[in-house]
Amino acid sequence: MRTTVSQIAREAGVSSATVDRVLNDRDGVRPRTRDIVLQVARKLGYFGPVDAEPLSAPVRLDFVLPAGSNSFMRTLKANLMQESSTRDDVTATLHEIEGFDPERLSAKLFDLRQRTDAVGLVALDHPQVREAINALAASGVRIGTLVSDIPTVNKVGYVGVDNRAAGRLAGLLLGRFLPPGQHRIAVFVGSLAYRGHEEREMGVRAILSEDFPEIRIVGTAEVSDDRDRAYVETMRFLERGDITGIYNIGSGNQGIARALREARMEREVVFVGHDLTDATRLMLLDRTMDAVIDQNPRVEAREIVRLLASSVRGTVEPEYLPRLQVVFRENIPTA
Question: What are 135-166's pLDDT values in tens digits?
């Protein structure tokens, strides 16, 4: 069966209309997006079978990500391995680090010296981790940050959304969802050691201060992306009886939802979070969540593999920032 436009769109992380414009050579598509669509179309065989040029030894890729129950990270890991398996020019190994532990993370990075060609990682912005990344890069290993950036290290690029913009978007949604008047909201953070989480908090604070001064953040809970801790902290806020909104920067949405349902406040508190997963789909459907700010893990996996493999082969390509998408109950995409 011939590859369809919808298959290309899903793999490339764009709309079917964009794919149609590219395949029919029409205007209105950015050059980088056009290149991605054409690459995906070739890979999926839209233009017919293509004889691959023989390569030397495959590029060795290692991915270092946090362990745990974070649904988005589980999906990202699966996509990283799937994307790598579809390419003949790379081999990939996944490493999971338990907890928000800079010592374990830095030790793993030091251990990868002389064992890999490139490393993609979701990393804490910590002095010990920065030193390990720079030492690994100095040994000749290419480094790419994923999901949460570390700007000051020696790397070939970052693949992930603009997290400050994501925080501002969350603040805009809260400001538009909440009725006129004074409001108090709670912010949940996975860990401020992740620059991405810190940037999201900065973003939401900035837009509330600029455009919605009547909305005040009355508390920030750091929950280590743990749903049980998120549940406890949500109950603590609800027992005070003074919050009308919640913004969850990281994981732990299921714990927040559980507390809202038990307190019968799921229709009273505006709840905005991140990442469309099986769990957040259900929360949107039953109206426990009002909006999910989503990033596409399939696109991010594809782009980090592309970035690292090309850098090892000497053809460094520009960073690619995946787009943000807001998902409501009415526009949940098909799985």
Answer: 999 999 999 999 999 999 999 999 999 999 99
Closest CA relative to residue 328, chosen from 220, 177, 146, 140: 177
CATH 3.10.520.10 fits 59-160+297-323, yes or no: no
pLDDT(1) > 80: no
User: Can you tell me which residue has the tokens 């690459």?
Assistant: 39
CB neighbours of residue 270 within 10 Å: 22
Nearest CA to 119 among 82, 159, 86, 79? 159
**2 pLDDT more than 80:** no
Domain spans in the chain, listed from the N-terminal domain onward = 5-43, 59-160+297-323, 163-294
Residue 91 has a CB neighbour count (10 Å cut-off) of: 16
Sort 247 into a burial class: Cβ within 10 Å, 0-12 / 13-18 / 19+.
Answer: buried
The CATH superfamily holding the domain 163-294 is: Response regulator (3.40.50.2300)
Q: Cα torsion for 202, 207, 209, 215, to the nearest 10°?
A: -100
